[in-house]
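Course assignment 3, question 2. Fill in each field.
Student: A.L.
Task: Predict the tertiary structure for the chain below.
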Amino acid sequence: MSAPRIRAPELPDTLEWFNTTNGPIKLADCRGKIVLLHFWTYCCINCHHVLPELAELERRYPDNLVVIGIHSPKFPNERIGDNVQKAINRHYVRHPVAHDPSFTVWKQYTIKAWPSIIYIDPEGYIVGVLRGEGKAKQLDKMIQQSIQVAEAKKILRTEKIPTRTKPEPDLELKFPGKVYAGKDRLFISDSGHNRIIECMPNGRVAHIFGSGAPGLIDGNGAEAAFDNPQGLVQSENFLFVADTDNHVIRRIDLITRDVSTIAGMNQRGKVKNFDVYDDALQVPLNSPMALEYDEGVLYIAMAGSHQIWAMDQNKQTIKVLIGTGVEGLKDNNGQLAMLAQPSGLSIGEDIEKHLFFVDAETSSIRSIRLRDNHVNTIIGEGLFEFGDTDGKKGVAKCQHPLDVSYDPVRKVLWVADTYNHRLRRLKIINGVLQSVRLKDELHEPGGLSVKGNMLYIADTNAHRICSVDLNSGLMQEVEIFEVESH
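Answer field:
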């Protein structure tokens, strides 16, 4: 005897809706269509990976599929509707999204983890739940089967659910993710425009790399294409770029302006062993988010696989340096340590050389002693321990920090405490974390770079780069401008 079919519970009236024309959407009005409820939270890298998979299914089945995002926030900052709107725009979400800060729908559907997808057939019954990322092929097969059954029953409907987006203002920058201060140049990941900007410290643009359209194309200057580029680091005449949504590492020759791909396969993957690979172009990467360079080694924060990798530029080899690949907070040597979405890197000297990094999902500031690759947590307690508190370890708390920059003059770490909209200062000598008062408010700052007495901040959600004079405390916006040629 078959189990009874379960009708999908109706969505409550208390939700805040985005990307809709006529307000709330009722599941009853979606009968005759396949409905996917995507439970996500915008901090989660695994949820990010699901979004393009869903977008491709929406393109493939525009008349038969309805995707509804159910945003169930992990962090307090994600409970604010305006911040959710920014995340929707940043990740190009075009389907309707219902904000569920009280977890009402989450509990209604007994969801256990992000991301999860509830599959509802055209008759309004729950077919099942798919947990995690990488379910596109399975979903595609299920959709085809549902369409065939619905056509046979003559219940398939093709009229579209109307949607309406709320675009960001048209500014020079769009969601800049990271910034890097070189010797006499400032480099900006203009992530929302899928390009890299090279400019003078005063903001005058020297060169632009990337056409603006998302893609993976090697070429010269604006002929090249990136997809949500993030981390940047310079070594002599080369600028390295973490091309996050392409899952590759790019290299820009700053003399010839040629852009080339040096690592990754343009497909997401995981490597769990610690072998050394001779051909970096044959190894799958997973959302590289930040870069650092030291003595011929390019360090890569691989946010998607919760690891830090190392690429030897002399030998042209690549390997996992730190992290089991399991998300968590565990100090140990490289092969046993656990990380959680590392998103910022910076080399610094604390008696001996360390690679400092931030783990976004554990809201932690950590370090790798490069002599023996031992990982130590300076600030942070676990996946669900976060806050906005100054002090030492055990007291101090951050909320989803996305970058860190070592200051050799002051022997401190500057921290982009992203979801607290703060700049923090961590004293290396005693491990004390302090908030920094600034003239202007920050809006989910995602990138930092210190050069001498100047600190540059990628104020991501405000679409701007700011500079802070560390001697005077003067904060200014770096006005990005191009000089018209005549």
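Instructor remarks: The longest strand covers residues 342-350. The longest helix spans residues 136-153.
Grade: pending
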